[in-house]
Amino acid sequence: MFKYVVAQFPKLVELPRAANYKRSMVVNVAADGKNIIRKFDDEGAKVMPFLTSPLEFEGHLYLGSLRPNFVGKLKLHN
Fold first, then answer.
1. pLDDT mean over 52-78
2. Cβ of 74: how many Cβ atoms within 10 Å?
């Protein structure tokens, strides 16, 4: 039955995936895991959807993603 429904309405398969890409966020948490130090939020995931690997290096935050074909770079201010 499921295969029949998907064959008739293939866009139904994309709905759960689309729901996951509405927001991207990176959170810097304290060593104790209880306090948030910094939070960067991309409401609507307009710049970089589906973030997977943030890395802080020499005053910049590098952002990796499985969707776009580029690495994001954000300058951090102390």
1. 87
2. 14
